[in-house]
Each structure stands twice: as structure tokens, then as C-alpha cells.
């Protein structure tokens, strides 16, 4: 009987040891697994953070560049020609009170609103020399704008010609230009396609006292706010 009691005790003790070892092994495996998961999680978070930081820096640089592009100096020198006489003067930054743009304005000229969607820039000494400025929205095509320009000029005179800029103005390389001449009168309309809008300027001057070049030099500086 004592022999069986000792054998039973030894067997129970062995089972307890085995159970204890199994529990310890499971806990050890569980702890090891948690450690691996924690390491993987930390690594993933670090990789995500590292991948996001350069993108954030790029976004900041892009935003800074956009802000920088919108900052304009208060003045700039403009060179132009009137009837063979070359001049260089300081033009000052002027914001339109009527439309959403700014430009550099020469001292001899004045900018004012004419209609809700049209500005007029004129020569102070003789306001028969002037330029109409319009900003056409992006849903207006160049073909539609050109057809409208031809119709407007033909209402003044039938001899409307499409011409090319002959003075090497790079910003007018792809512009559509229409001109009407009658006696001493000279009317020239320019359509310049921008990123999401079209600049339309119509210049009224004369062949005898031609202010076309200074008007164009100022029109080149037009930028939307």
C-alpha cells in the first residue's frame, strides 16, 4: 500500500512539474510574441514617420514658393519706345480696385475702372491713347474669345487683320492679335492664354503718336492676385 502511495505521489508530482513547465513555456512564448509585436509596431511607426517627414518638408517648401511668387516688389524699371524715342522709367506696383490683378504702372499713365469687368489704363496728357483690360474666365475658349474680338473690331471697321508680334515679345509668342487701322487710328486687341484664364487687352492709339509699346510693357506685368 505504501509502495502504491509513493508511486501515486511521484506521479502527481511529475504531472504538476509538467503542468508548471507548460505554463512557463506558454508565458515565455507569449511574452516573446508580445515583444516581437511591439518591436514590429515601433518599426512600422518609425517607418511611417520617416516617410511622412520628407513629404511634409516638400509641402512646406511648395507652399513657401507659392507665397514667394505672390510677393511683388513695389517698383520696377520698364524700358519702352514711343515713335522711335526710347525711354526707361520706374513703374510702380498698382492693384486694380475693380478686378483681381495688379500691374506695374508708368507715371504718365492712370488706371481706373470702366465697367464691372473692365479696367481702362490711359495716357494722362491725352486720354485718346488708352488700353482696355479684361480677365476672361477659364470656361471661355480662345476660339470664342477671338470670335468676339473680331466682331467687336469689325463693328468699327471691316478691315480687321490677324497679325503676329514683330517686336520679339516672348510673352506674346502664342497670343492671338487682331488689328484695325483707319486713317490715323490704330486699334489692336491681344488675347494671351494663362494657366486658367485669358488676358484680353485692347489698345487704342494712333499711327502718328504711337503708344502701343508702353501699353504692352505694362500689360506684360499683369498678374492675378
TrEMBL record:
The signal peptide here is 1-19
Q: Tell me the segments the record calls region Disordered.
A: 26-68
Q: Where is the composition biased (Basic and acidic residues)?
A: 43-68
Keyword Ligase in the entry? The reply is no
> What are the protein's UniProt keywords?
Signal
Which residue ranges have biased composition labelled Low complexity?
Answer: 31-42
Q: Which domain of life is it from?
A: Bacteria
**Name of this protein:** Lipoprotein
This chain's source organism reads Lederbergia citrea
Amino acid at each position: 500500500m505504501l509502495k502504491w502511495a509513493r508511486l501515486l505521489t511521484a506521479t502527481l508530482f511529475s504531472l504538476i512539474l509538467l503542468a508548471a513547465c507548460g505554463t512557463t513555456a506558454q508565458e515565455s512564448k507569449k511574452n516573446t510574441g508580445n515583444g516581437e509585436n511591439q518591436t514590429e509596431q515601433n518599426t512600422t511607426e518609425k517607418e511611417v514617420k520617416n516617410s511622412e517627414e520628407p513629404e511634409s518638408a516638400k509641402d512646406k517648401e511648395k507652399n513657401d514658393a507659392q507665397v514667394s511668387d505672390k510677393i511683388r516688389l513695389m517698383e520696377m524699371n520698364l524700358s519702352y519706345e514711343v515713335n522711335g524715342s526710347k525711354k526707361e522709367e520706374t513703374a510702380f506696383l498698382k492693384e486694380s480696385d475693380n478686378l483681381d490683378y495688379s500691374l506695374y504702372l508708368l507715371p504718365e499713365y492712370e488706371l481706373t475702372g470702366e465697367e464691372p469687368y473692365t479696367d481702362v489704363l490711359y495716357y494722362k496728357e491725352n486720354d485718346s491713347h488708352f488700353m482696355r483690360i479684361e480677365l476672361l474666365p477659364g470656361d471661355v475658349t480662345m476660339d470664342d474669345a477671338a470670335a468676339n474680338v473680331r466682331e467687336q473690331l469689325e463693328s468699327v471697321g471691316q478691315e480687321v487683320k490677324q497679325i503676329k508680334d514683330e517686336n520679339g515679345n516672348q510673352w506674346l509668342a502664342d497670343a492671338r492679335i487682331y488689328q484695325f487701322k483707319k486713317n490715323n487710328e490704330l486699334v489692336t486687341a491681344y488675347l494671351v492664354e494663362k494657366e486658367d484664364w485669358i488676358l484680353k487687352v485692347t489698345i487704342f492709339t494712333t499711327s502718328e503718336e504711337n503708344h502701343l509699346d508702353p501699353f504692352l510693357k505694362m500689360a506684360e506685368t499683369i498678374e492675378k492676385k
